[in-house]
Amino acid sequence: MEKKDLRDLSKLVSHALRHEPAAYGLKLNGDGWVDLDDFIAAVRASNARWRDVTPADLEAIGSAFEKKRHEISGGRIRASYGHSVEAAIERTAIAPPPMLYHGTSPEAAEAIARDGLRPMKRTHVHLSVDLTGAREVGSRKSTTPVLLGVRALDAHAQGHRFYQVDGRVWLADAIPPAFLSKMG
To answer: For the whole model, what pTM was predicted?
Structure first.
């Protein structure tokens, strides 16, 4: 499958597992998992373009992109993070690196300066380990993204919880404005 097709398939997988499983006739279990065979049947039924999708195609998504948005294990699949629907994925809070980063739009940056980072329509705040990742995320929201530094270790020391998803992405429940600063 070509990289463009994998990107499109990844978007469909994210939509189905993060945002609207019911639209695909799926029900996530308590940890966000769904049976892989059921998921493939739902993807195939969603659009004729995907009628030949295989488990190998879903595995290829994980190899094609740096961010690991999905995981497959034991005949099941789930989104690793980014849920707007409740998927009670059990996570263990750990100490984060001293700094993490968040990219956003100029409009949202004003509200964030006042109210802090909040999950909004997601279950967690998404943070990047570097400015490049934050810029990539912020560029999806604006052609002139605002980059914020998060004094994560200081926030952690004050009782705010952080969860590592992979080598590039961290999650947090919320971050008060006192731990944020505009970068550059």
So the answer is: 0.62
